[in-house]
Please model this.
Amino acid sequence: MGKFREKLQRFMIGRYGMDQLNQFLLYAVLAVILINLFVRMWPLELLELAGIVFLYFRMFSRNISKRYQENQAFLRMTFRVREPLKKWQFRFRESRQYHIYKCPSCGQKIRIPRGRGRVSIHCPKCGTDFIKKS
Ligand SMILES: [Zn+2]
Model:
């Protein structure tokens, strides 16, 4: 197994490897494979194959600057989709770790880590202290 990894590493020298576009292709291919399990249609199999071929072609390509440009174009094209997704992901992660409380007197939002039991919260805006369960 170690020898295989060594061989693979030597094989990958000077080749492009993974980037965001390839990651996207990988997930797209997996999604198509999954869909294809439920609705068997031949265009899907063609799409699978095309995706896999394109993915491997880009991974093993030696034309690194060209692949880099493709990835940049992909990132530019998907910027409007990726940014809201990233924000949503961030908010979701945060909401699992923190509780947002509103100060009862001034309405200032205060972020408190979850799972600390009852805590006394000091409002940084108006100085009010209030007790909440975190
Ligand atoms: Zn306040």
Notes: Helices lie at 2-12, 20-38, 42-59, 64-77, 79-97.
